[in-house]
Design goal:
The protein contains 7 helices and no strands. Helix 3 runs parallel beside helix 5, helix 4 crosses helix 5 (119-141) and helix 4 (89-112) packs parallel to helix 7. It starts with 5 loop residues before the first helix and ends in a 9-residue tail after the last helix. By secondary structure, the chain is mostly helical.
Amino acid sequence: MDDDAWWMDVCPVGDREREDNLWMLTNGVLVISMNAAFGLLEAGSVQSRNVLNIMMKNMGDLILGGVAWWCFGYRIAFGPTQERWPHDVHDHSFWFFQWTFASTAATIDSGALAERVNFLPYCILSFLVTGLIYPLVVSWVWHPAGFLAAAGFRDFAGGALVHLLGGASALVSAALLGPRIGRFSA
């Protein structure tokens, strides 16, 4: 058994597909690490009594976002396939990679809404962003038949899509909720 044989059990495809899968999984883990960093940044920006709420919101983004992305977000973003998806290893790693971006877009809301909204309404917002709003925008940009993709728009690694959507969602949500009560009073 050669040194590379253990990969055949995990990823029984050719070398190129194996490298692509490893690349997507590695980068997906890096993007999820950003979610942990966002949580720590947000925890340092709130009163100590709200740190647990912030961490729960960040975990909720991953868990509820994963459920929403699995159930319908991925299909909205990339369209239905002929077979039940994900039907091979490449689809699993691609799903994981795209899910990390979806949950990151929802996590941006967490910082903007810190100390402004309770946990349950935030979970509903996160579920809607990850499962409906973000996938719709992804279908415009990253799906080959998307109207922005057809118009020549290119997005590198979510620089426009993830951050613009997350920022716009956070801005609208914060504007609707108003300032944190007692946080910036003189």
